[in-house]
Design a protein that fits this description.
Keywords: Golgi apparatus, Membrane, Protein transport, Transport
Number of domains: 3
Family: Belongs to the COG4 family.
Pfam families: COG4_C (PF20662), COG4_m (PF08318), COG4_N (PF20663)
Membrane topology: Peripheral membrane protein
Largest sheet: 2 strands, parallel
Subcellular location: Golgi apparatus membrane
Number of helices: 31
Structural class: mainly alpha
Shape: flat
Length: about 850
Amino acid sequence: MKEQVSSTSWEGSVIEGRLSRNLARYTLLLDKIATLSQVDKLSEVIANDYAEQSKQLSTFVQESQSSLNKQSRKLELQRTDLTTTLTHFHETVSTISSSNTRAKAIHDDIETVDQERALVDKTLQFVRDVRTLKNNISLAHSALETKDYLVAATAINEIRNLPDKKLIVSEFAKKVVPSSEIPEEPSILIKNWCKELTGLFQEHFMKATRTQNIKELTLMFKMFPMIGQDVLGLDLYSKYVCDIIADESRKIMSNSMENSTKFQGFFSQVLLHLFKIVSTIINDHSKVIATCYGKQHMVHVMEKVEKEADLQASLVLDIFIETRKLDRTISDINEWERLQKNNDRNKGSNQSDSETDEEAQQGSVTSIHDLAVLIVEFSQILQNWSMYARFYSVKWNEFTDLHPDILQPPPPIADGKFALKLKQDGILDDFQVLVLSHLHRSFKNSIPLEELPSLNDLITTVPLSDNDRNSYPVTSVLDDLILLVRKNLISAVNTGQFELLSSFLNEVVKFFQNEFLVRFMQNKFKSLQSKLTPNISLKRYIPKGEEQSSASNAYASSRSVSPPANKFSPLSRFTFRGAAASALTNIQSNLQAVVADDEDSILALHHYLIYLNTLYLNKMYVHRLLSIEILEDDSQKILKDNFPFNNDAAQLQTLIVNSEKLVLEQTDKLSKWAVKYLFQNILQNKVRNLLAAVFVNINPSNSSTSNQKNMSRDNSAGVNQKNYITSIEDFEDLSQINSFNNKWNQLITPYRNILHKEAYVELLSNIVGYIVGTLEQRIWTLEFNELGVTKLDRELSLFIGNICGLHYNLREMFLKLTQIVLLLGLDDDSFDLTTGDIKDDFDGTFDWVITSQKRIKARSMKIDRRQ
């Protein structure tokens, strides 16, 4: 239909276009008419056009009318179809309306039936409950007459648990339930029975507690909730349990109090036994309470039990403080610290150290041994409390259905008397005072007992491997220190008290810094440095009285094995076993040098090296003590087990890491200072003398006459030339570098045998830094030919390999020297003739550490290059 309409409109537009064109043509022709004949022709044209247009218009009108008639017929047919569809729609709507009416009627009928059924069920349930009520009243009445209290309580409990609580007071029950034998109303009857049974159960419960009839006691306890006396039953049970705790505590204290002062650890055992009783009660009796009363009622019992446990634990703690004379001990410790401060101030005064030490000892009544025993018992008391607090908190969350991500102490623990006593009465502060006093006094006493091992067996030109040694030589003070810190750290960790351990860690850091590193180690180094002379050599120490006997037995002793030492232990005092044989000539030269050198200086150097090892071993010990034993031991999980509350374990882990970092940083500063002093004052002159004969040309006769005028003597050697001109005859001559290597090994091997690996690397790093600076200045003053560059490359490679060994990080310090040699060995084609520097394409292949000007200068050092 759309196509027909568009066709008609198109034909109409065509006709209109033709008329417009004809009219325009007529207008043009009319303007051009000049004669009558032209008018006739125009009139004839117009007539023809009119006839043709009229014919086309008639045809168009006929076709348009035909098309319109067809469209009208189609519309009539569509209207007829639409009328039929509308009729069907109205029929369907009528049917749906009828169905809705019928469905509503059915729904109303179903609702009526459901209501009637619910009423019938409710009535039936009511009748059943009334029957249950009547049966149980009869059963309870009979049971009370026969004194079968369990049956009576069970019947009453079933009545109390009826779904309809108003049933017992309903009019129907009042009329149906009473009988001739039981005329009372159900509500009044049940109330009287519960009151009567409450008194009976309470009386029997108290009697069972006095006679310790556990069976009768348990029975009575189970029946209290049956008659609605849950709170009374729990209160009686709580009182019974608390009496047990108090009786057991008094029994333990009374039976053993006479020997408590002799039995160390007595009070910690009493407290542990007390907490075991409470834990057993909570574990075992919780099953009965959860079954008869409900798990949520266990919290009520735990609160009452914790109050009694707090009371008894506080009593034990008070007796411990009084019996062990803790206040007196703290007072003595404060007095001892005061005397120590006076001792420090009196140094240099007329009063001698021995007098002040004696005065300090007299002021201290408690011996170090007794103090250590007291700390152990005190730590165990706090540890027992910490374990009990964790157990109690877990059980509390279990009975209250709490599942927190982070365990927190419940109010009975956090706000209990024992916990408040620890904080408010300064008990934790007292423990901290005891621990720190034991640490300081024990360390101070270990210093006069210091033992230093002998280094004679290690002073040899034969390198010793790890298999030849059991340990590094260190002072015994370090072993004593680590043992003391470890012992007191264990006591602090075992307490489970976050404040104690965090405070102890801070004090340990101060102790290492002030007492060990500054007052002991730094003073030792300073006193030894005043005894060291620059020309001293590392030789065996032989006192004057033993020189002759040592000389006669020198060869024999060089082949003997050193005395056995204790097995290596991470925290035991290190000793060294196993000596390497040395040549007879070296021994004789050492013995001669001993006579020449001052024995005190030699011994001072020995001690200096021992204390250097002590610093580096201290770093290893501290790391092992804190990180490995506490943090990295996954099997024990020390922090998580001892500090379960809040986020204490994570905070302590961070604190331990930071404490270790501080100690290691301070130790590292002191060790680097000591190593630097050793190099600058003992080894630097010796290394300078050794370097005087290397990388110089001592055969000037092999040089050309034109090059000899550029030669001059090196200031440090006196005979070394500034030319490195090598001929074929002396190209293979490596006597200079071999001689240096032999002398270097004789100089450095004893240090490598004695020093800890890190100490030796630090010392070697100082030496290499000096060597690199010295050789760089020397090489820039030399001139080379082709063979000289190749020889220099060989000698430098042997030189670096012998000095650095397997310490490849030290080889990087020679990078500038090796790049200078590399530049000298490049062909002339690798350089740009214009700039004198290497070409750009070659420059990108290396990470140069020398500037462009230095590279140009390096090329100018080669005399046989292409100009």
